Amino acid sequence: MKFFTYSILGLTGILLLLAGCTQSTQMSKQGKIEVGHAWVRAVPPNAKTSAAYMKLQNHGDQEDRLIAANSPIAEAVELHNVFKQGDMMAMRPVQHISVPAHGATMLKPGSYHIMLINLKKSPKPGEKVHLTLTFEKAGQMEMMVPVHERKGKMMDHDKMDHGKMDKGRMDHERKDRDGMEKGGMDHGGKGHGGMK
Amino acid sequence: MQTKKYFSKWCQNVYKLGLFFFTVIVLMTPLSVEAESKLKFYKNQGGDFTLTGHHGNPVSLLDYRGKVVLLTFGYTHCPDVCPLIMSYLQQVAQRLGKQVSDVQTIFVSFDPERDTLEQLKNYISHFHPSFLGLTGTPEEIKKVARQYRAAYFKQNVKSAAGYLYAHTDYIYLIDQQGQLRRIYRKTPLNKIVEDIQYLIAHNN
Are the beta carbons of A41 and B83 separated by less than 8 Å? Predict the structure, then answer.
């Protein structure tokens, strides 16, 4: 009798495991992009351009690509990359920004960024900017992105993921002391957008 | 016996004292020499120039004798690199506190076509009221850029932003006598502040 009960339990366990696996395979097939640490640079009232930065995380098994972005505050939105050309920093529009499977791509100052061109309204600190991202596989994603003077200020506004917040603030202070805004955006609250 | 004991005690004390002073000296030396050792005088780079200030008046580097000058080149349509530098210089100014009155931050625009005086003024003063934007004719700007070996060129890329520039992202530290003393690129904030404070403290 005891043997019978245990084998039923064991079988149920196996079934549950299988069910779980199927579930996760389904999710990765759809592709899963998570956007974190997003911020838009506050610029002087008459500035024509600004930029949005964020961490794009791909939880899926396949590479995905950010292929377009849109915002009501700018006449045009382009994907750009900054690269070094001799002693100079040059910038060029890119067709897409790739996010590797189970990996992440950082959009940060001096690197990939979403360029907001011909601003209809200049982003001010404390405001939030509506941004639509289009991914090749994951499709469209809408989000409200906070505006900051510089990386790190985001901590004041980000109310999500408190666990990481304190560590983030310390990291920020350290970075602020030790260096420019360079370095990964490896701190701050999480996610201003979820998958649709 | 007694003298031997005293002698060994004396030796111990001298040793301790020596160790103490040695440690103090070793610890102090880098602190006092560090800032100075990194500052140098550049030959054939830098020097005086005159351009047009964002208020419309001619501005010369000579006007800032007695002040430490932070100089950088850029353009206001720049979406990523220049705002990064400006926000960085803003932090330097904030970090300096009252000493900011001994420092003049100058942004030279090499895009006179789009950077009108009005545009330049609104852009620059947003970062700090004391910051000054300079521009001039393309030839005048080129001349100053050459003096400082700053480089820029219009990139041939298609963007809704119109033309974009490739450019150097240096910040030049000029002392109270108008001499170029250091060139920064991605230098930690506190190092710049340290250098400025050194120059302010050692200004004769």
Answer: yes
**Domain regions of chain B by residue span:** 1-38, 50-201
Render the burial of B91-126: b for 16+ CB within 10 Å, e for the rest: bbbebbeeebebbbbbbbbbbbeebebebbbbbbeb
pLDDT for B60-104, tens place per residue? 999 999 999 999 999 999 988 999 999 999 999 999 999 999 999
Taking the domains of chain A in order of start, what are their residue ranges? Answer: 1-25, 31-178
Question: Parallel, antiparallel, or unpaired: how do β-strands B68-74 and B164-168 relate?
Answer: unpaired
Mutation to test the A interface, candidates B78, B82, B84, B157, most A Cβ within 10 Å: B84
Residue B129 has pLDDT above 90, yes or no: yes
The candidate with the shortest Cα–Cα distance to A93, out of B112, B113, B109, B79, is B79
Q: Torsion angle, CA of B144/B39/B81/B121, rounded to 10 degrees?
A: -50
At residue B64, what are phi and psi to the nearest 5 degrees? -110, 25
Chain A residues in contact with B87 by the CB 8 A cut-off are 149-150, 181
Q: How far is CA B5 from CA B8, B12, B34, in A?
A: 5, 11, 44
- The residue-averaged pLDDT of B120-131 equals 94
Q: Could you say which architecture CATH assigns to the domain A31-178?
A: Sandwich (2.60)
- The ipTM assigned to this model is 0.72
Task: Closest CB to B79: pick one of A86, A87, A115.
Answer: A115
State how far the Cα of A39 lies from the Cα of A146, in Å rounded to an integer: 5
Helix (H, G, I), strand (E, B) or coil at A3: helix
Tokens of B124: 């620059």
What does the block give as tokens for A70? 């849109």
CATH code for the structural domain at B50-201: 3.40.30.10
Q: Tokens 């395979």: give the residue.
A: A25
Does any CB of chain A come closer than 8 Å to the CB of residue B192?
Answer: no
Read off the tokens for A177. 């002391």
Q: How confident is the model at residue A150 (pLDDT cuts 50, 70, 90)?
A: confident
The string of pLDDT tens digits covering residues B142-171 is 999 999 999 999 988 888 888 999 999 999
* Residue keyed to tokens 């250091």: B182
Inform me whether the C-beta atom of residue A110 falls under 8 Å from chain B C-beta atoms.
yes
Q: Where do the DSSP E strands lie in chain B?
A: 50-53, 58-60, 68-74, 103-109, 132-135, 152-155, 164-168, 171-174, 180-184
Q: What percent of chain B has pLDDT over 70?
A: 86
